[in-house]
Structures are given as C-alpha cells and as structure tokens.
Write a structure and sequence with these properties.
Number of helices: 0
Order of helices and strands: EEEE
Low-confidence stretches: none
Structural class: mainly beta
Radius of gyration: 15 Å
Shape: elongated
Mean pLDDT: 92
Amino acid sequence: MNLAADIGRQLLDDALDYTHWSLGAGLDVQGFSLDLTYHNTDLAGEPLADARLVMTARRSF
C-alpha cells in the first residue's frame, strides 16, 4: 500500500492564481495497481476546478 499527497500554487498573469492539492492511496492487487485520489483547488465558482475523486487501475506487462 502507498500514500501520496501533493500541494502546489499556480501563478497566472490574469490574477486567477490558485492553490491545488491532492491526497491519494494505492494498493497492488493480483498484478493490478489500484489508486484512489482526491483532487481539489481553492477556486470558487469555477466548475472545471471543482473537487474530483479519481480511481485508476493499471497493469504492466
């Protein structure tokens, strides 16, 4: 099992500076790598910047 966290600051010329962050966990199950990560920003009123929960499944050959 693994845990991951990320935080960053985006500085834009048009004054829409924002902070973004994520928190996730991953697990290896029968040859697959499964991750579940929550992403969010501090932008209010921006539908494309709303919080998201993302699940990823990977398998390497």
